[in-house]
Design brief:
By secondary structure, the chain is an alpha/beta fold. The protein is built from nine helices and nine strands. The protein has two domains: about 170 residues, Rossmann fold; about 100 residues, K homology (KH) domain (GMP Synthetase, Chain A, domain 3), CATH 3.30.300. The chain is globular. Bound molecules: guanosine-5'-triphosphate (GTP) and magnesium ion.
């Protein structure tokens, strides 16, 4: 795999919440690395996904969508995004063509355009809408004016796989010469515990809406190999008793539904039959409990 001509570098994916960043990293790497949902602010980690080709390796870093603060966890998530941006070789900026660019978009562009790192702009969700294509192009060019850091503008669909090859090719061009950082069969360095916890969170996000997702966290407590099955215990943490009632659902329906989805996804990762045990818990101030946030890997 390695030779003097080998290229390898970090590509941080940045953009507003819900733009399709996690969908894009999954499509580019070819496996579900980062969870996806229709709820903004789904991603809570700097999730790495690794793509290895014969002569280059791209280490993608998915980040939480950057946004104007609305809740306490948001501050931590924005810090994760900013840190990942400061130490990368290329920025993959993702815009959502199906929504008009509001102030939040300008905040992201303002941060990115000050960094002096080459940017590849992905104008995502082209399968859904092209109405604002020129609005985005004009806006980006305004921020790029006099800086010349935006190298490519690629209309694409992360969901339908449109123009992924163009994105990869443009990134390759700006990768620095380095030996590979990871073995060629490694797709992510995200730990099994965190991946499982995130998949369980994704399982719930399919059913719950509005503010509740931001009040929820999942922690993997145990993974025990019992021969034919793997036993996995996760705590599903919320802030109030009322929220606990919602996530359990009438007669335990919601927690069961989320469990069925998550178990199937976890089995793909573990490659083994899994028994998934989900327990709902109330931890009132988990978002400001530093020790707990660290256990969750959010700080
Ligand atoms: N139509 C369409 N939908 C997409 C596309 N890419 C992503 N989506 C949808 O957009 C929603 C958000 O996708 P995510 O990948 O979770 O977005 P994100 O930018 O990672 O969001 P955060 O983690 O919250 O910042 C999901 O419902 C996706 O299915 C696309 O190319 N076309
Ligand atoms: Mg995401």
């Amino acid at each position: 795999m390695s030779s003097n001509n080998f290229k390898c570098g970090f590509v941080t994916i940045a953009g507003r919440p819900n733009a399709g960043k996690s969908t894009l990293i999954n499509s580019l790497v070819g496996q579900k690395i980062s969870i996806v949902s229709s709820i903004p602010q789904t991603t809570r980690y700097a999730v790495r996904g690794i793509l290895t080709r014969i002569n280059y390796q791209i280490v993608f870093v998915d980040t939480p969508g950057m946004h104007i603060f609305r809740h306490r966890l948001a501050l931590k998530l924005n810090n994760i995004s900013r840190d990942s941006l400061a130490y990368c070789d290329i920025i993959l900026y993702v815009a959502d063509l199906s929504r008009f660019p509001v102030k939040e978009e300008e905040t992201v562009l303002d941060i990115i355009s000050r960094l002096k790192i080459p940017v590849v702009a992905v104008l995502n969700k082209i399968d859904k809408s092209k109405d604002y294509l020129n609005v985005y192009l004009d806006l980006i060019k305004r921020y790029d004016s006099g800086r010349d850091i935006f190298k490519y503008f690629i209309p694409a669909s992360a969901l339908k796989g449109i123009n992924l090859d163009k994105i990869e090719k443009s990134l390759e061009e700006f990768l620095p010469f380095n030996p590979p950082f990871y073995e060629e069969d490694v797709l992510t360095d995200f730990s099994r515990e965190f991946r499982i916890a995130d998949i369980v969170r994704e399982g719930f996000y399919r059913h719950i809406k509005e503010e509740l997702p931001h009040s929820m966290a999942v922690k993997t407590e145990e993974i025990v190999d019992r021969g034919k099955v793997v036993y996995v215990l996760c705590s599903v943490i919320v802030e109030t008793q009322a929220q606990k009632k919602i996530i359990i659902g009438r007669g335990g329906r919601l927690i069961k539904e989320a469990g069925i989805y998550s178990r199937a996804e976890i089995e793909k990762i573990l490659g083994k039959k899994t028994y998934l045990d989900l327990r709902a818990k109330v931890l009132k101030d988990w978002q400001v409990n530093f020790r707990f946030l660290r256990e969750l890997g959010y700080v």
